[in-house]
Amino acid sequence: MDIVVKGRKTEVPERFRKHVAEKLNLEKIQKLDGKVMSLDVEVSKEPNPRQADRCDRVEITLRSRGPVIRAEASASDPYAALDLAAEKLDARLRKQHDKRFSRRGARRIPAAEVPDHVPGVATLNGSGANTAQEQEQAVPTKKIGSLEVQGDGPLVVREKTHVAAPMTLDQALYEMELVGHDFYLFVDSETKEPSVVYRRHAYDYGVIHLRTDTMVTENHSPEAGGTLGG
Fold first, then answer.
1. pLDDT tens-digit profile of 162-193?
2. Can you state the subunit structure given in the record (predicted)?
3. Is the dihedral of CA 213, 218, 219, 220 positive or negative?
4. E-strand spans in the chain?
5. Which residues pair with 194 in a beta bridge?
6. Which of 80, 192, 220, 230 gives the lowest tally of CB atoms within 10 Å of its CB?
7. Cα 59 from Cα 81, distance rounded (Å)
């Protein structure tokens, strides 16, 4: 496997290409991920003089049989940006490697202990029947279109609640690639608002940020207007 170094709207000197080969140790990378197929390094330059402290940007893309791993960084020169991006790549490779190792080395849980380790797992009664199904059967259901609604509703097909620590956009993209999904819901560490990253065409991504509209909230509040009556 070779390292492909390319420039976007800028030329890459031979000296920098040699530095990339020295900095990104292929043998070390393949020990952490033995299924690596390609490793690309893209260098770009920001022409805005106001961003001189981060005018050089380096993005490293590692493709393997698993999820794509990306690491990018900006600095005042390409060598410093490469060092920062390489550190991020190494950290993400180690994290992914540790996850695979922990999954392989995890002990098997006896069936009797499964409810203690897996939240929301099905539990059985003394006759071997699913207690959750018994509770569902006790609640009357009705058909509305293609949906089956229990009791009086509401029309919620499925609901999940996850505890999530705030993270950066870069971390959210990495987690999305790690789980292999086309989108990933997260709490933005800067805005503290819920956001979604999603996969677009090829290797492009999009992000949607949600922000509370105070005007709408006030207009829909009980104090904003009276009730209508006859």
1. 777 899 988 888 888 787 788 889 999 988 88
2. Interacts with 100S ribosomes.
3. positive
4. 3-8, 36-45, 56-64, 69-75, 141-144, 147-150, 183-187, 194-199, 205-209
5. 187
6. 230
7. 9
